[in-house]
Amino acid sequence: MPNPKILVFSGSTRTGSHNVRLAALAVKELALIDADVTRISLADYPLPLYEGDLEANSGPPDNAVKLKQMIMAHHGVFIASPEYSASVAPMLKNALDWVSRVRERGDPTYAAFEGRVFAISSASPGRAGGLRSLMALRQILELGCGALVVPEQVAIPQADHAFDDMDNIADIGTANLFRAVLTRLVDMARLMM
Ligand SMILES: Cc1cc2nc3c(=O)[nH]c(=O)nc-3n(C[C@H](O)[C@H](O)[C@H](O)COP(=O)(O)O)c2cc1C
Fold this sequence. Notes:
Blueprint: E1 5-10, H1 18-32, E2 36-39, H2 52-58, H3 62-72, E3 76-80, E4 83-84, E5 87-88, H4 90-101, E6 117-123, H5 131-144, E7 148-149, E8 154-156, H6 172-191
Parallel strand pairs: 1-2, 1-3, 3-6, 6-7, 6-8
Antiparallel strand pairs: 4-5
Bound molecules: flavin mononucleotide (FMN).
C-alpha cells in the first residue's frame, strides 16, 4: 500500500522562525513513519489581505487556487502555528480565508478542508508555547471550515531554548508527544486514501 501524502507548512515565514523549525522537524519525523511529505512555505504563495470587493471583482488570486490545489493533493496537513496577540498569525489566517473561498468545477464549500485530516502544533518564546493560537486555529479549521483535526497537539514553550543542536525537541516528553501528534495524523490520513 502506498504511503499517505502529508503536506507540512508553517504559519510564519520569518528568518529564524521557531515554527519553520517545528515544520522542518515534522518533515523529518513524518518520513520515519512512512509518510510521503511535501513541505511548502507560505512565502511562495503571497496573497493580498482578504477583502470582499477584491474577491467580487477579481475572484480568488492564483496563489489561493494553487494553495488550495496543493492542500487537496494530500491526505493530511500539518500546520506549525505562531501565536500573535493570543491568536493565529495573520498570514496563516489570511491564507486559510482565501483557500476557503476557492471553488473550482462545482467543488463543495470548503472543498480543501474535506476528505483530509489536519494536525496542528505551535512554538513560541512565551511560557504557554502558543497554545492560544492552537485553540483559535482549531476553531477556524473545525468550526469555520468543517475540517477534521486530530485531538493531539503540542505547544512548545520557550522555543528559543527548546530545540537541541540537531534541531530536535530537547525535552523527551514533549518530543514523544510531538511524535504522537504526527503518528495520529498519518494513521488517520491512511484512512483518507
Ligand atoms: C504582534 C505580535 C504579537 C505577539 N503575541 C504573542 C502572544 O500572544 N503569545 C506568544 O506566545 N507570543 C507572541 N508573540 C511572539 C511570537 O510568538 C514570536 O515572535 C514568535 O517567534 C513568532 O513565531 P515564529 O518564531 O515562528 O516566527 C507576538 C509577536 C508579535 C510580533
